[in-house]
Amino acid sequence: MDITDSAVWFSIGIVLITTIITRVTRGRSRFEPACSTPPPPVVSCGSFVGLLHTLYTKGLRVMILDQYTKLGSVFTISFFGKNVTLLVGPEVAEHFYQGLESEIGLNMLGFTVPMTGKDVGYALDAATRCQQSRFQTDALRPSKLRSHVGPMLQEVEEYFAKWGQQGTVDLRKELEQVLMLISGRCLLGKEVRDNMFGEFFTLFNEMIDNGTNISNAIFPFAPTLTNRRRDRARAKISEMLTKIVRSRRSSNQAKDDVLQYLIDSRYRDGRPTTESEVTGMIIGLILAGKQTSSTTSTWTGARVLSHSTCLAAVLEEQKQIFKKYGDKIDYNILLEMDTLHRCIKEVLRMHPPTPSLFRKVHKSFVVRTKERAEYEIPKGHIIASPMLFNNNMPNIFKDPDVYDPARFGPEREEDKVGGKFSFTVFGGGRHSCLGEAYAYMQIKVIWSHLLRNFELKLVSPFPEMDWSKIMPVPKGKVMVTYKRRSLAST
């Protein structure tokens, strides 16, 4: 299945998801006074057939470009009485990222509920979810991240010490494993990492593999074989984590990890977090981190190793940092790795963790385009911010199909050309991703170590995108040859 075939299935999945959500919420809608502001232009049901043809033959970006050229930056795709309104470009994105959850909901992520549980996240009301998000954000704030660098480095060094003097590996598989080890150490703690991590790793992969397909998003609670496998794995994970939470509380143990912080967290009314809430929140953090960090780490390797200029630039940066600090790595030194940071950021622009973000409109609002046209987005619409397209707009990102990390350098700063919503891979405004700093830190720790200690070469074809997942990943193996070397001697 090539990218266009896969994109078709991704879009068909979104069609079905929005159809189901609209049916569920239709009974709750109430009459709102008419607004004199016109609604967005609509792609009719007849034109929808043409959309699918363009999608199949030319791809998702071209499909959106065609409608963007014809209709402008705000338009609605209507099919079978359902409406999805696309907000294309940063000029029309403010309410999408700044709107209150009472106005635009995040309930498009309900498929995660069977994995995180009914006591956390998108199974709850907005107020409770907001408090739980605060617990998670506080646990990953920079002042706490500093203490994680040492354990991360230890896991990375020990893992890659097992590589031989030279060889060939599947980079995607290797990075996935080392990132799970980091999660085990920094998020879950030593009980899981030292005593049961192999079992936990296997179960978590089984849960994700059977819980993040398009079919899961459409029918998350259906009695399908994949859902049953997902649920069995999740039940075993929950049992493992519950025992740890219970043990720590009964023995008054205090650990320096994210799990402990969530155990100690309290709601505004003074209520402590429950075992099931802690379990659900930590699963959510690992789920988000694994999908973003492992995928982005792999794309970073594939892109940098395919561009000799970028590879030379990141190697030179590591040499200069090594001359300045020796083999020491800490939080502040990671912040000095600007070239590596830009390489990762450019990967996120070209390969965002999800091709589009979606919200459900609970209260009608008016959006104004850069051409000063105004449209009312009606209550009940699904609104979409298509990152895969927004990240490739040539009026913001020069030569968007070219891997060019320098576009984020101080001389260009293309991510600021269109304002604060020009680059929204980690969300924006009140809906920013809480794990952004943590993700960058993990990837920098891994790639600074690899660049310093190995000569690497991509030997398989540059990977395609696998669109069969809700959060697309590199398709197939990403084979890399390695040879040990010391950066200090080069």
How would you sum up this structure, described in words?
- By secondary structure, this protein is an alpha+beta fold.
- Helix content is 52%, strand content 11%.
- Strands 1-2-3-9-6-4 form a 6-stranded mixed β-sheet. Strands 5-13-10 form a 3-stranded antiparallel β-sheet.
- A hairpin with a 6-residue loop joins β11 and β12.
- α2 crosses α3, α9 runs antiparallel to α14 and α14 crosses α17.
- The N terminus is likely disordered.
- Its cofactor is heme.
- Catalyzes the 14-alpha demethylation of obtusifoliol to 4 alpha-methyl-5 alpha-ergosta-8,14,24(28)-trien-3 beta-ol.
- GO terms for molecular function: heme binding; iron ion binding; methyltransferase activity; sterol 14-demethylase activity.
Task: Figure out the total of helices.
Answer: 19
Shape: globular
Name the average pLDDT: 86
Measured between the Cα atoms of the first and last residue, the distance is 43 Å
Task: Enumerate the spans where pLDDT stays under 50 for 5 or more consecutive residues.
Answer: 1-10, 15-33
Structural class of the secondary structure composition? Answer: alpha+beta
Strand portion: 5-15%
The largest beta-sheet arranges its strands as 1-2-3-9-6-4
Largest sheet: 6 strands, mixed
- Compute the gyration radius: what is it? 23 Å
Percent helix: 40-55%
Q: How would you describe the oligomerization state of the chains in this entry?
A: single chain
Overall strand count:
13
Short description:
This protein is an alpha+beta fold and 490 residues long.
